[in-house]
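Lab notebook page, bench 4
Experiment: in silico fold of construct C2
Operator: M.H.
Input chain length: 207 residues
Purpose: comparison with the prior construct
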Amino acid sequence: MLRLTRWISLGLVVATLLAWGGFWLRRSGIDLVGLGTAAVGIPTGVSVGGPFALTDDHGRAVTDASYRGRWMLVYFGYTFCPDVCPTELQTIAAALDRLGPQAAQVAPLFITVDPERDTPAALADYVKLFDDRLIGLTGTPAQIAGVTRAYRVYYAKVTPKDSTSYLMDHSSFIYLIGPDGRLSALFRPGQTAAELADAIRARMATS
């Protein structure tokens, strides 16, 4: 029943993000990039993103205000992720390379959905496999629940049959947050590094 409830919650999140509201996005200047005609956006009154209080991969307490004035490129995943997380982090790293000097204006954040295993030390070892500029963030289960709720992120613990370890189901969007702390663009899974870098550069040019 719990698993069914979580999938229903996921369906509601996806429906909220993708069912209606493209007009609202256009009015707000938010781009839902790479979703083609299926993207119709977020309903009026529904926010994505917001304040958080977490711990970075050096063990320091940070908040969203710690990165104010820079663009935050936010991705949610976990270090034991077997497939989509490494792929998306490689894309983010390649996009930063494509941005050149402009990458200094970006804080690329990898926020775990698995705080039970993803300690600051584990995150530090993991993110440096992709790019030294990546910043891993973790927190208490309550803190992670708060930030994932703010960003409309779905995640759930799943234990495969005949396994003693677990995986995490999770949504896989990349969020671009402007220097003012507001959502600027939302990128679907599978975005190329070139598309990601071009979209970020375009948003920077019009900010």
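Observations: Strands lie at 31-33, 53-56, 61-63, 71-77, 106-112, 135-138, 155-158, 167-170, 174-177, 183-187. Residues 1-29, 34-41 have pLDDT under 50 and may be disordered.
Next step: discuss at group meeting.
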